[in-house]
């Protein structure tokens, strides 16, 4: 097993290798089309139980369905994110990562009293982050979130991913900025939250360019402003199967990212930034 710091050192020369069209392991990617790291997708496997969230239970969405939906996008790696409807049992996630292979990692949803041994087991299975759903939950426990986020980072190198309305985070800015690494889902959700989001980017936060069908903002302008602040902050994801979104993911969303950011920054958002953060293959 290789920890995050060891892996990042080991792949310091990845850019040169990737230029030749070779990914870690035996995956070969053509230079003719930009390869994509899907930094945010969900697999909803019917073999594992679901937990209603505010009465909502999503339809199943299997690995074959996902692969069919991204077949034309050159997605060759990614991060499977646990949803609130999957509860704290991450058995489904471990099974999913095993089936997808070593270029895929997981973002887990786990309880704060999880044991150190279980955190290490999930890390060795490919989990790279812990997720906090603050969008449909309360935001009055930020101290607990920060304490837990620091614990899993120190123990396993996990960063924290936050699903939230960034507009509601202004009073928590200083606390969030002190964490080793945070990722904000879905561009922070609202136009009102963009100024707060940019402050977090200045403090080192990553931002997922995902869920364009669920946000309330000028997406092209938000992408442009984030890239201007830090071109290494944005990470593209499909958000498939787009549960509860006003509209599902469309391949045109990926084209939008490429068009707004330009070739160099689009390459970072579609591959480089996420690959560096999630360190797949280190297990």
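Sequence proposed for the structure above (283 residues):
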């Amino acid at each position: 097993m290789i920890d995050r710091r060891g892996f990042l050192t080991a792949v310091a020369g990845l850019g040169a290798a990737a230029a030749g069209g070779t990914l870690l392991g035996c995956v070969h990617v053509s230079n003719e089309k930009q390869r994509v790291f899907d930094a945010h997708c969900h697999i909803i496997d019917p073999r594992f139980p679901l937990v209603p969230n505010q009465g909502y239970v999503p339809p199943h969405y299997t690995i074959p369905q996902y692969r069919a939906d991204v077949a034309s996008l050159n997605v060759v790696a990614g991060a499977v994110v646990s949803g609130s409807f999957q509860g704290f049992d991450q058995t489904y996630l471990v099974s999913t990562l095993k089936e997808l292979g070593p270029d895929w990692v997981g973002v887990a949803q786990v309880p704060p009293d999880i044991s150190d041994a279980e955190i290490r087991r999930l890390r060795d299975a490919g989990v790279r982050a812990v997720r906090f759903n603050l969008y449909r939950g309360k935001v009055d426990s930020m101290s607990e979130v920060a304490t837990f986020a620091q614990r899993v980072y120190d123990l396993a190198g996990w960063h924290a991913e936050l699903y939230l309305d960034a507009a509601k985070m202004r009073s928590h800015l200083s606390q969030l900025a002190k964490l080793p690494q945070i990722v904000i889902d879905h561009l922070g959700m609202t136009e009102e939250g963009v100024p707060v989001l940019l402050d977090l980017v200045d403090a080192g936060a990553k931002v997922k360019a995902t869920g364009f069908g669920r946000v309330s903002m000028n997406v092209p302008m938000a992408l442009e402003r984030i890239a201007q602040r830090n071109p290494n902050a944005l990470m593209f994801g499909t958000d498939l199967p787009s549960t509860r979104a006003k509209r599902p993911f469309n391949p045109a969303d990926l084209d939008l990212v490429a068009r707004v950011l330009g070739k160099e920054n689009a390459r970072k958002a579609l591959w480089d930034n996420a690959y560096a953060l999630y360190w797949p293959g280190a297990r």
